[in-house]
Amino acid sequence: MPEPVQYRGMSLLIPDNDSEWKEYFAHARQHTLMLRACNACHLMRYPPTHACPWCMELGWTWKEVSGRGTIYSYETVVHAIQPGFKDVTPYSVVLVELDEQRGKPTPDEALRIIANLVKSDGTTMEDAKNVAIGKRVRVVFHDLAPHMALPQFMLTDESPQGRVWQLPE
Amino acid sequence: MKSLKDKYCIVGVGETEYSRNSGRTTRAMAVDAIRKAMLDAGLGRGDVDGMMSYQSGDSTPANWVASDLGLRLNFYMDVFGGGSSTEALIGLAMGAIETGMCNTVALFRSMNGYTEFRIGGTGARAAQPVRSLDLAQVPFGMRSAGQNFALTFMRHMYEYGTTSEQVAHVRVAHSKHASQNPKATQKERVTVQDVVGSRWIVKPLHLLDCCLETDNATALIVTSAERARDLKARPVYVMGVAGRVNKPRTDFHWAHGPITRVAGHYAKDIVFGQAGIDPEDVDVTGSYDAFTFTTMLQLEEYGFCKKGEGGQYVSSGMIELGGKRPNNTSGGHLCEGYTHGMSMVIENVRQLRGTVDDYCPGAAKGEHSYDYAPGRCRQVRDAEITMNLGWAMPPTGSALIMRRG
Question: What is the reported pLDDT for B124?
Fold first, then answer.
């Protein structure tokens, strides 16, 4: 079993029998964002779960996505709970809606991923003043160990999607 | 829809002091709270034969607590969980009695929520490895309840124009109510400016948008309507109950939008269907106010206003004592203390009995002034029907409708 990965005071543990996450993070370490696609209905899903939530099929295939998307919601942590985050406050947590499979199979469904909004190096937190709903982002990987990288997201210079909104202060 | 409307009652309630320094075990506090609830109901050692609790590895199992009081149980169960458990366990207790497994069930929640197990990733829980589904969010500095819910709150502001000032009124209202509650830990009335001027925790939550961390135990007793008729306290009847109702994809509910929709969207038809009433019939609400926003979201989802108009509803004066439908007349989790939901059910039981423990000298006999100035009365006049809106997280919730006997 691989040793837990030490990151910001946490022990991130992916045991050899973690049949959901092990391959996901291994793909991320190769700098590809891969999601599971159902072998029957071909819909992708996140997180990487064992069965298809749309048709209960067990068979799945890893499928690469572009890693491009839009900030669907966000929050800015000013008072960190985890001690390992205190030196990077204020930091932003973003809910990214990926470009693939938006509005399928129902209008309200989408592939959405939680990450930090970071700079292009994948490790430095983006200035919290720059986060807003509607802004475009792309994935960038933060290598943590030989078997694991964290998919993070950075701002791009693409035009925003829909209304750009930030909490008024 | 199947319903056990009016067949079961809450016959006893009790709690320990709300504090940040209990100085004793969850076991001792649970014993104290259950004993008070039994005395409140007029039940003796041989009269309670079922016990249930909820916890998350931070409390004492029901069978130990029962042993301390010399109760021999025919049924007990400890359930994993926090918010939204109270209402669900009331329904399960009714089910246990209905099947004949036992006759009378005591429910409790006992937690040293400040001195032992605080919210979020600090203390004993911080040492645990992050694995499994937690890998989808904890590595990104998203661990506490506020951090878990803030994406929902922010999106609500974006979609509906809800403002910080609007939801601040929830804290304002609950602080008014707490100023009439001798038990409340935060009795000071606050203004909208106090709330939006308090420091940021996780945007859009200010410090005063967040509830308290508290050491406390709460208990209540469920039995059949037939048995309730012979007991000491005025019975309070369960009209409808919904337990831990989910949105789709509760493992990672952001996959299924709109993320501003919360579980009450699904729970409301169950609970109102059983009770056979509408939101307009409810006199008092008790929302799970882990945050100001959770109250706003639930009130709109259960149909007390239109979806998206929760901000206007909570800032209209409607939810304050003296308003049309007061919410959390004890001050709730924001101002009285945090109990994972049971205290709001206890408060509504007392409202329906007409014996809320405010500062009125004759409160225990049901004599109230209905003067809602600070340090006076918090009894709602002629409260006939109450509703509790339990919350675990945006995609999971419970609900309970009760009426006076």
Answer: 64
Helices H / strands E in chain A, number of each: 1, 10
Closest C-alpha among A96, A159, A107 to residue A133 = A96
Mean pLDDT of the B21-38 span: 98
Q: At what angle do helices B342-353 and B85-98 cross, to 10 degrees?
A: 70
Using the 8-state DSSP alphabet, how is residue A161 labeled?
A: S
Rounded distance, CA B38 to CA B53, Å? 16
Residue A105: per-residue pLDDT: 94
Chain B environment of A81 (Cβ under 8 Å): 119-122, 143-144, 147
- For residue A111, what is the nearest residue in chain B, using CA coordinates? B255
pLDDT the model gives residue A2: 81
* Best mutation target, B152, B162, B254, B293, to test chain A (most A CBs within 10 A): B254
Q: What's the pLDDT score for residue B105?
A: 98
Could you say which of B18, B54, B288, B372 is catalytic? B288
Q: Do B121 and A82 touch (CB under 8 A)?
A: yes
* CA B217 – CA B248 distance, rounded (Å): 32
Q: Give the model's pLDDT for residue B119.
A: 72
Task: Residue A115: list chain B partners with CB under 8 A.
Answer: 140
* ipTM computed for the complex: 0.98
Does the pTM surpass 0.90? The reply is yes
* pLDDT for residue B327: 98
Residue B202 distance to chain A (closest CA, Å) = 4
Checking if the pLDDT of B121 tops 60, the result is no
Q: What whole-number distance in Å separates Cα of residue A62 and Cα of residue A34? A: 6
DSSP letter string, B343-364? HHHHHHHHHHHT---SS-TTGG
Q: Is A108 within 8 Å of B252 when comparing Cβ atoms? A: no
* Beta pairing class for A60-64 and A34-38: antiparallel
Pairwise CB contact (< 8 Å): B200 & A7? no
